[in-house]
Specification:
Elements lengths: L5 H35 L11 H11 L1
């Protein structure tokens, strides 16, 4: 006769479940990376204040 379509729904459901697991894992990895990036940045840095080393380099390059 032929294959029944009974397994088609199960196969699609299993693929969807696996894809959901992959998506969740990638979201967890992204969240961990963002958290690590936040921790490595210096907190409360004022963008208006110039760093002394950079100012010295700029002055030396101009002179």
């Amino acid at each position: 006769m032929g294959k029944s379509m009974y397994n088609f729904g199960k196969r699609a459901k299993e693929k969807a479940r696996q894809q959901k697991q992959i998506d969740k894992a990638s979201k967890r990895i992204m969240a961990k990376q963002q958290e690590a990036n936040i921790k490595t940045r210096t907190p409360n840095r004022d963008p208006d204040m110039a760093e002394p080393e950079l100012v010295e380099e700029i002055v030396k390059s101009i002179a």
